[in-house]
Write a structure and sequence with these properties.
The chain has about 375 residues and is of the alpha/beta class. The protein has 3 domains: about 160 residues, Rossmann fold (3-Layer(aba) Sandwich), CATH 3.40.50; about 70 residues, Helicase, Ruva Protein, domain 3; about 100 residues, Winged helix-like DNA-binding domain superfamily/Winged helix DNA-binding domain (Arc Repressor Mutant, subunit A, Orthogonal Bundle). It is about 45% helix and about 10% strand. The protein has 15 helices and 9 strands. The strands form 3 sheets. The chain has a 5-stranded parallel beta sheet, with helices on one face. A two-stranded antiparallel sheet has the order 4-5. Helix 9 runs parallel beside helix 11 and helix 12 packs across helix 13. The radius of gyration is 23 Å and the shape is globular. Bound molecules: adenosine-5'-triphosphate (ATP) and magnesium ion (MG). The site of adenosine-5'-triphosphate has 23 residues, from helix 4 and helix 10. GO terms for molecular function: helicase activity. It is found in: Cytoplasm. Belongs to the RuvB family. This is Holliday junction branch migration complex subunit RuvB. It holds the Pfam family AAA_lid_4.
């Protein structure tokens, strides 16, 4: 199964979309320039920021390494950014690795045994650590010790090596996949949630300042509304609007530039792109709102079922445009409204005329409260 929220596994289609939450190497380089460096520059996420600020200030006052920190949440919301901020606030250096980069327990042992006192070890995609490495990490996090194995077979012995105090910052898009013993070793877990439009507006205004472009509030507002609650998408759309303003406008990012640019890139007013709209259109126009099975729907829009399920559907479900029911996908009344078409009588989610209407679309089995698969 491809995991949509996991940038390392995102299907290829994801890389071509303007509104995907993941990022490739080139984009990550562009992002580095826009990353907030300190906690007070970090926009939104008030709760996590407050909690983290306490953890860090207390540690600084005690002159000790803070508890290990786990950051969870969907791609592009600021986990890596926060990890960097933690080390900056502590005034220590940051060592970066990731679950997939650690193939063997020995790789992790090498990283751990080279840590210096107070350093922050950032482990991205920590849910993808191999099991033996995970077990080594438990001991290191709890007892600040790593057992170095010398020799092979029956003659092998483990020599315990004491580690200086350090802090692990783990990031995951899938905290549900973390084994409980690992999760328990984090003293603080911060869960990042999608940003609201006013927060994204602040992200955009801040980024525009750093890029040295002039932006009007109306444009920032417009871009924010199309960014799917995700700062990474907001920054990406901002760069496309800047291109448009440079090439076809007068360099100033105003409402006209924002609208025109996002029309060129086919990102609609609520952040849906071509594929999202194709899925929604097929569901409403071809199948009268459903229910329709995933593979039929995918065939109609000319995509693989996996692409529809992992690339388009999560946001459509999150926005309440599509519901997943045991009998298939259905369009909600919001979907008809968004497409500006009158639902046929008896359509799922049409105004209450018959028994088919379910005013509060309930998520199908296997779904979390937000409508995301609860795997
Ligand atoms: N609160 C914020 N304020 C300002 N900019 C932000 C904020 N959160 C994220 N960003 C910007 O969004 C971009 C993506 O953030 P980041 O790389 O930290 O996301 P992530 O959660 O680590 O994503 P992934 O799961 O893909 O690794 C960065 O360029 C960063 O500057
Ligand atoms: Mg990251």
């Amino acid at each position: 199964m491809v995991d949509p929220s996991d940038p390392g596994q995102a299907p290829e289609y994801g890389g071509e979309r303007l509104v995907t939450a993941g990022a490739d190497e080139i984009e990550r380089a562009a992002e580095a320039a826009l990353r907030p460096k300190r906690l007070d520059e970090f926009v939104g996420q008030q709760v996590v920021r407050d909690q983290l600020s306490l953890v860090l200030q207390a540690a600084l006052a005690r002159d000790a390494a803070p508890d290990h920190v786990l950051l969870s949440g969907p791609p592009g919301l600021g986990k890596t950014t926060l990890a960097m901020i933690i080390s900056a606030e502590l005034g220590t250096s940051l060592r970066v690795t990731s679950g997939p980069a650690i193939q063997h327990a020995g790789d992790l042992a090498a990283v751990l045994s080279s840590l210096e006192e107070g350093e922050v070890l950032f482990i991205d995609e920590i849910h993808r650590l191999a099991r033996p490495a995970e077990e080594l990490l438990y001991v290191a996090m709890e007892d600040f010790r790593v057992d170095v194995v010398v020799g092979k077979g029956a003659g092998a012995s483990a020599i315990p090596l004491a580690l200086p105090p350090f802090t692990v910052v783990g990031a995951t898009t899938r905290s549900g996949l973390l084994p409980a013993p690992l999760r328990d070793r984090f003293g603080f877990t911060g869960h990042l949630d999608f940003y609201d439009a006013s927060e994204l507006e602040r992200v955009i205004l801040r980024s525009a300042g750093l890029l040295g472009v002039q932006i009007e509030h109306g444009a920032a507002h417009e871009i924010a509304g199309r960014s799917r609650g995700t700062p990474r998408i907001a920054n990406r759309l901002l760069r496309r609007v800047r291109d448009w303003a440079q090439v076809r406008g007068d360099g100033v990012l105003d409402l006209r530039a924002a609208r025109a640019a996002l029309e060129v890139y086919e990102v609609d007013p609520i952040g849906l792109d071509r594929l999202d709209r194709a899925v929604l259109g097929a569901l409403c126009r071809r199948f009268a709102g459903g229910p329709v099975g995933l593979s039929t729907l995918a065939m109609t829009v000319g995509e693989e079922p996996e692409t529809v399920e992992t690339v388009a559907e999560p946001y459509l479900v999150r926005e309440g445009l599509v519901a997943r029911t045991p009998r298939g996908r259905v369009a909600t009344s919001a979907a008809w409204q968004h497409l500006g078409i009158e639902p046929p009588p008896g359509a799922w989610g049409a105004p209450a005329t018959g028994s088919l209407f379910d005013p509060a679309p309930s998520a199908g089995p296997g779904m979390g409260p937000s409508g995301e698969p609860s795997t």
